[in-house]
Design goal:
Elements lengths: L7 E3 L5 E5 L15 E2 L3 H11 L1 H14 L5 H4 L8 E5 L13 E5 L1 H6 L11 E5 L2 E6 L9 H13 L7
Parallel strand pairs: 1-3, 2-4, 2-5, 5-7
Antiparallel strand pairs: 1-4, 6-7
Helix pairs in contact: 1-2, 2-5
Length: 166
């Protein structure tokens, strides 16, 4: 199995489900050959080291969105270990056993694959679906997903009782 066949990382049934079009090109040795795996802080660091700034940006924006407070730097090592999961190249929303998950579909390519309407530039949309709340957002890149948009998304997640404070 090649690295690009990785389909899921993180805890199954985590309440925040992120969707991206592609997995990291290079993976830590222990993740090679896997399609579905739980991930550790060391794995996050190694993915960033192997794949560079692009994946650091993705993980930082995810941490900024997901952190229970504004201290995303301390939260980054915990990313994908309890409250988030990340799907690559999905063509359907994941079935999650947690109470009302939030599916955060990132970028036009992911929206197209899932049959969802793309978010407008530097904006996000929220839909109630049978499988939980679905949010379509720009791709997780600083130019497309500035801090202002992160703050707005965090406010919406707070209103949905998905994060404890902002």
């Amino acid at each position: 199995m090649q690295a690009n066949q990785l389909k899921h990382v993180g805890k199954r049934n985590a309440p925040l489900c992120f969707y991206l079009p592609n997995a990291p090109t290079l993976l830590p040795e222990r993740l090679k050959g896997q399609a579905d795996v739980e991930i550790t802080a060391a794995d996050v660091e190694e993915i960033i080291r192997l794949n560079g700034n692009h994946w650091r940006k993705i993980f930082v924006i995810m941490a900024k969105i997901s952190a229970p407070d504004l201290n995303w730097r301390d939260y980054l090592p915990q990313l994908l270990s309890a409250n988030e999961q990340l799907y690559f190249g999905a063509n359907q929303l994941a079935s999650i056993d947690s109470v009302s998950p939030v599916h955060i579909v990132c970028g036009g390519e992911s929206c197209d694959a899932l049959g969802l309407t793309k978010a407008k530039p530097q904006a996000f949309s929220v839909y109630e679906k049978q499988k939980g709340v679905v949010m379509t957002t720009p791709y997780l890149d600083y130019r497309q997903f500035p801090n202002r948009l992160v703050d707005q998304l965090r406010q919406t997640l707070k209103q949905l009782n998905r994060i404890s404070s902002v």
